[in-house]
From TrEMBL:
Signal peptide: none annotated. SUPFAM superfamilies: Acyl-CoA N-acyltransferases (Nat). InterPro entries: Acyl_CoA_acyltransferase, GNAT_dom, N-acetyltransferase. Gene3D superfamilies: 3.40.630.30. Belongs to the acetyltransferase family. RimJ subfamily. One of its GO terms (molecular function) is acyltransferase activity. This is GNAT family N-acetyltransferase. The keyword Transferase applies. Residues 14-182 form the N-acetyltransferase domain. It holds the Pfam family Acetyltransf_3. Keywords: Acyltransferase, Transferase. Its EC number is 2.3.1.-.
């Protein structure tokens, strides 16, 4: 089963849509442009990650997971540019019916409500189209902007996970959030 997602127009003419291999050059440019902006919140990246070939390989991996009903890679497209990304990953079916959401925004697009709008669209699809029961997210302790996005979207804080992910070259504590989609 391939997770379908209808394009969603967001404020400012940004379109939330499924990531494609044709986005590789624009993704590489966006990651190069935002390298310093994203570095404190991201895993340490290889130089290849910031290239068109690296983004094409990454996209192929993510689209293969989509084909297996295990992920949904989306981009926030601003014309031919990429303004950010949002991914449902680790989709588990069966009794769990859960996924993890992650996202990033180009520095020039922060503070406009785009992450909140995109997250609302992903929550709606996860609940209504994909039948998921729960979405979880994790943020670094100091990532108050992302925590605000999650809280506005109805996520609740469920705790702190010590040394949860290796971010910026070291294992770091994260605040865990969840949103239950069905009663």
């Amino acid at each position: 089963m391939v997770l379908e997602f209808a394009d969603r127009e967001l404020p400012g003419g940004i379109v939330l849509r499924v990531r494609t291999e044709q986005d590789s050059a624009a993704l590489a440019a966006a990651y190069q442009r935002n390298r310093g902006h994203l570095a404190p919140w991201d895993p340490t990246r290889t130089e290849d990650f910031f290239t068109e070939d690296g983004q094409r390989a990454q996209t192929r991996e993510l689209l293969a997971l989509r084909e297996m009903d295990a992920g949904l890679p989306l981009v926030l497209a601003d014309g031919d540019d990429i303004a950010g990304g949002m991914t449902l990953s680790g989709i588990v079916r069966g009794a769990f019916q859960s996924a993890t959401v992650g996202y990033w925004l180009d520095r020039a697009h922060t503070g406009r409500g785009l992450a909140s709008e995109a997250l609302a669209a992903v929550i709606e699809a996860a609940r209504d189209q994909y039948g998921l029961h729960r979405i979880q997210a994790a943020t670094l302790l100091a990532n108050h902007a992302s925590q605000s996005v999650l809280t506005r979207a109805g996520f609740e804080r469920i705790g702190v996970a010590p040394k949860y992910l290796q971010i910026a070259g070291r294992w770091q504590d994260h605040v865990l959030f969840q949103r239950i989609l069905h009663d």
